[in-house]
């Protein structure tokens, strides 16, 4: 069972989402909260796998909640967060993803899409496709000249750079293995090494890192 906490200040919206997710055979909503402060307390009590988090709430908004969850004072093993937002190109959502969230879902998404997003994030994938992330983060990045690669990036081996580039472009482990003529377990090892060297949590942050530093194709 994938356990979920809903954090949104609209009770009617939470109720609809809860009904939709509880109807899934592999999901259960274990708690609700109407603001980020209540949400953090609920997360501490229930330790869910996934948090669906609204961006705009009273008391403590979604962005500050993400920063708390993934900051130095947050839990040792924080849940994965899916941001709920009304706008596709939401600057607050972009900042939340940079801070550790696994992507965002529009609040008018269908129940089937939301359930698929929960499953994808639970499995370690991003909710957003790399081209969507590129659009989201390229708005302010591509206007400036490309910076030199960060020092940590230069520590990657040639094979790790190839895997990094393919992962940042959205290729799955299976597709990367085919292109690199290695096993899927070897790709997983390379991905783990890349994340460790660049001090990134997951593939979502890898994609953001690639776009922020203009590293695709280098």
TrEMBL record:
Pfam families: GerE (PF00196), Response_reg (PF00072). Residues 149-214 form the HTH luxR-type domain. One of its GO terms (molecular function) is DNA binding. Residues 3-122 form the Response regulatory domain. Keywords: DNA-binding, Phosphoprotein, Transcription, Transcription regulation. The modification 4-aspartylphosphate is found at residue 54. SUPFAM superfamilies: C-terminal effector domain of the bipartite response regulators (SSF46894), CheY-like (SSF52172). The keyword DNA-binding applies. The keyword Methyltransferase does not apply. PANTHER family: TRANSCRIPTIONAL REGULATORY PROTEIN NARL-RELATED, TWO-COMPONENT RESPONSE REGULATOR. This is DNA-binding response regulator. It comes from Frondihabitans sucicola.
